[in-house]
Amino acid sequence: MSDNSASGRVGLSLMTFLIACWGLLGWFDLADRTQAGFSTDGNNTVIQVYPTSPAESAGLEVGDFITYVDGISVEEAATIARMPRKKMGEIGVYSVDRFDQKYEISIRYGPLLEKTLSLARVSLIVGFCFVLFPLGAYFRKSSEATRMLSVMGIGLGLAFMTGPYIADFSIRSVTTAITSLFVLFGVAALLQFLLVFPHRRPWMNRPHLKTLIYLPAFLLWALIAYRMVFTPAATSSLNTLTNLFSGVIVGGYLLLSLYHVLRNYSKTDQASRKALALNSMLWGAVIGLLPVTIAQLTTVFSPQSVLPGQDYYFVTLALIPLTWARSASR
């Protein structure tokens, strides 16, 4: 084993360990989390009110446009971001516009709904699949492909791990910015992996090509980090821009990745497909990526729409690290 391979495995193993600890701390923090029981489209319009939730009991409705939270305008991002997490039984007062009428709705925060707890736990399991299976492939076979697969796994695995609550706003915002960077670079690494496996594209050696692969992810991260750290006014225009930019960039990476999975499969002969288990990799990619890609594009072009079972679409993503790690380690 070369020194570079050994140091790479140690570095990725250490990062995996730290991310696993982060996820487990978030798991134990679930008991202290509270929930109002609704979700918005990213621009303060309510698109879901969960059954039996405090929000439903308080009378919040789908389509309500939230204007104030506890007397603070939703556009005052700096103030909203610094608000502490709601405690069990604490009341949040939401001012909403509903059909040109203004209402004040008081929601008493309660424990996480059973559905929310189940989704959080399943999400953590999916995250562990992403960080562990690719790392195992890298240990079985050290190559550029398995290294990129492991980098992808660390980034995407972190996306499923919420971590513990951090009370200090400065630390919380910096941590969120760093986490976002890992996640977005993981999405870009997904595309890079497919450009080197099963056969490395000759044009991958061109100068600055890797920069071009990661540049869109970095630009999106810069926007997210700017909003996290500097908390500018959360105007409707800025919210829409962020949602649109995020959807286009992430959706673009996912669509390109799906395209290259199909292209790699079609360009590989039958013997190589069998030897590299590309059939299972193909189905793992299609079944894994297609639901979340549809959900992502729906969020971009119809943010107030909720697809049937959308909350569970991410579960299929667990097929990707499982089937891809199996193929890359052969």
What does this structure look like?
With 330 residues, the protein is of the alpha+beta class. The chain has 2 domains: 241 residues, Rhopdopsin 7-helix transmembrane proteins (Up-down Bundle); 78 residues, PDZ domain (Pdz3 Domain), CATH 2.30.42. It contains 11 helices and 8 strands. The strands form 3 sheets. Strands 5-4-6-7 form a 4-stranded antiparallel β-sheet. It has a two-stranded antiparallel sheet with strand order 1-8. A two-stranded antiparallel sheet has the order 2-3. α6 runs parallel beside α8 and α10 packs antiparallel against α11. The longest helix is centred in the last third of the chain and has 31 residues.
Biggest sheet, spatial arrangement of strands? 5-4-6-7
Sheet with the most strands? 4 strands, antiparallel
Helix/sheet category: alpha+beta
- What fraction strand? 5-15%
CATH topology-level name of the largest domain:
Rhopdopsin 7-helix transmembrane proteins
- H and E string: HEEEHEEHEEEHHHHHHHH
Mean pLDDT: 90
Low-pLDDT runs? none
Approximate shape: elongated
| Helical stretch tally | 11
Number of strands: 8
Number of domains: 2
Q: What's the architecture of the largest domain in CATH terms? A: Up-down Bundle
> How far is it from the N-terminal to the C-terminal residue, by CA?
17 Å
CATH class of the largest domain: Mainly Alpha
In angstroms, what is the radius of gyration? Answer: 21 Å
Helix content: 55-70%
